[in-house]
Amino acid sequence: MKLPILHIDDHIIVVDKAAHMLSLPDRFDPTLPNLKHLLSKKYGDIYIVHRLDKETSGVMLFARNEAAHKHLNHQFQNGQIDKLYQAITLKPNEDSGIIDEYIAESKRNPGKYEVKSKGKLSTSEYKVLETYKNYALVSIRILTGRTHQIRVHMKHIGAPLLVDSKYGVSDQFFLSQIKKYKRKKEENERPLISRCSLHASELSIIHPAKKIPMTFYTPLHKDMRAVLNQFRKILS
User: Fold this and answer.
1) The predicted structure's pLDDT at residue 145
2) CA-to-CA distance for 164 and 151, rounded, in angstroms?
3) Dihedral sign (CA 141, 231, 196, 121)
4) How far apart are the C-alpha atoms of 6 and 46, rounded to whole Å?
5) Residue 100 is among the residues annotated as catalytic for this protein
6) From 53, 82, 100, 223, active-site residue
7) How high is the mean pLDDT in each 10-residue block of the chain (236 residues)?
8) Which alpha helices (H) appear in 95-220, and where do they start and end?
9) What SS3 state is found at 21?
10) What is the pLDDT of residue 184?
């Protein structure tokens, strides 16, 4: 399996994670392909620094030794790492804003999170980059790292992700939802995107050994670009 490496040295590995790829071994089925195992097979010991949800694509960072792991964990804990995402969502009411809400796991739906007063304080900053009638491309910077934070926050302000099986409008998005066209009866329409419409576009750290700032960037993946191309053609 191809591993798109954005940067590698003796201390860190930065990859462009594909959607539908697990970041870490699955606790119920550890045999499923995951980035940690794939990188370990090729590069030796790999240390987890953070994770991305299975359906989220984009920049992900791993440490290659204990010292780097400790240094990077310290940066995460102290809010020194800058994480920027892009998401396709329903159009927010405001063009920009700061979301400060407490998030906790749902007691009724384990594995799903929600805004709750007894949760952990979570902060996200968002800015609308483009709008297409009822939809938007949004840039989101997270100042805390709670589970499903962006997905929960955007839903809370009435602008859930376009595609999100847990928090969004649906688990797939089709061209026919914005454009009428004729197709053969036996033809099944393929979705433009069938995963969470969220991409980790940029990550900034202090290198654990060189002690210099470094920023890693990866553009939107093909499926998210396909949705935006259709929005620009049909809805702009």
Assistant:
1) 87
2) 8
3) positive
4) 16
5) no
6) 53
7) 88 96 87 91 93 95 97 93 97 97 92 92 97 97 93 97 92 91 73 96 97 97 97 93
8) 149-156
9) coil
10) 63
Give the residue from 204, 201, 206 showing the smallest Cα distance to 217: 201
CATH T-level topology, domain 5-234: Pseudouridine synthase (3.30.2350)
In 148-175, which positions are buried (b, 16+ CB within 10 angstroms) versus exposed (e)?
Answer: bbbbbbbbbbebbbbbbebbbeeeebeb
* pLDDT on residue 79: 87
Residues in Cβ contact with 235 at an 8 Å cutoff, skipping those fewer than 6 apart: 132, 133, 135, 178
The CA angle 226-232-236, to the nearest 5 degrees, is 155
Tokens for 136?
A: 């938007």
Domain boundaries, the chain: 5-234
pLDDT score for 157: 97
Neighbours of 203 (CB within 10 A): 22
pLDDT of 25 reads: 87
**Structure tokens that stand for 212 in this block:** 């210099």
Structure-block tokens of residue 124: 């996200």
- For 69-124, give the secondary structure using H, E and C: HHHHHHHHHCCCCEEEEEEEEECCCCCEEEEEEEEEECCCCCCCEEECCCCEEEEE
Residue type, 130: E
